[in-house]
């Protein structure tokens, strides 16, 4: 079955710097890749997603890139702010109902 | 437009008791997923339900765990005879239709078994 690996598990950056989180997936049939942000005590919120027919998608300070050949995708956050501090999960979906999540990256943005 | 609601937010049970977790999907959504999250781990799929139907329960332990999504009312995840290893955060998510890949998560229920 699908397996999603996520790195790093913890990331600490200075406010204003960029943060990059990387994920790899195993099932080449995966074609939908969402990213979720989980703040303490809250549910996960979809922040950006990308489908396999594009290589990059950007939404203000957040961007996601996808390399289907290498089976990896990355989340880029620019000009980080303290409120970006949270746990971020990547996920992969083959178009069905089952979404497989990475183990998460705990991002700390130091003011 | 209320999002996905879960209750209770925190639940403490002694070993051997039953835990009932409730999830009300977003308005207009008829598909519900349940996930379990252990500390420092990602979300693990447990079960996928539509109204009155279990579509896939491949992620759910065969014993003590059950789920339902009745025609009326919330989806229920039921854990019988809880053990310490059941302590985790349980999240539900909903989506509007079959095949929709976007899922909207509730705030979760944190179950502690003492």
Fold and architecture overview:
The complex is a heterodimer of chains A (111) and B (114). Chain A has no helices and eleven strands. Chain A has strands at 4-7, 10-14, 19-25, 32-38, 44-51, 56-59, 62-67, 72-77, 86-93, 99-101, 105-110. In chain A, a hairpin with a 4-residue loop joins strand 7 and strand 8 (72-77). The N and C termini of chain A lie far apart (41 Å). The relative contact order of chain A is 0.34. The mean pLDDT of chain A is 92. Helix content of chain B is 0%, strand content 49%. Chain B has no helices and eleven strands. In chain B, the strands form two sheets. In chain B, strands 2, 4, 5, 6, 9, 10 and 11 form a seven-stranded mixed beta sheet that branches. Chain B has a four-stranded antiparallel beta sheet with strand order 1-3-8-7, with no helix packed on it. In chain B, a hairpin with a 6-residue loop joins strand 7 (65-68) and strand 8. The A-B interface holds A 4, 6, 9, 32, 34, 36, 41-46, 49, 89, 93, 95-104 and B 4, 6, 31, 33, 35, 40-45, 48, 55-56, 91, 93, 95, 98-99, 101-108.
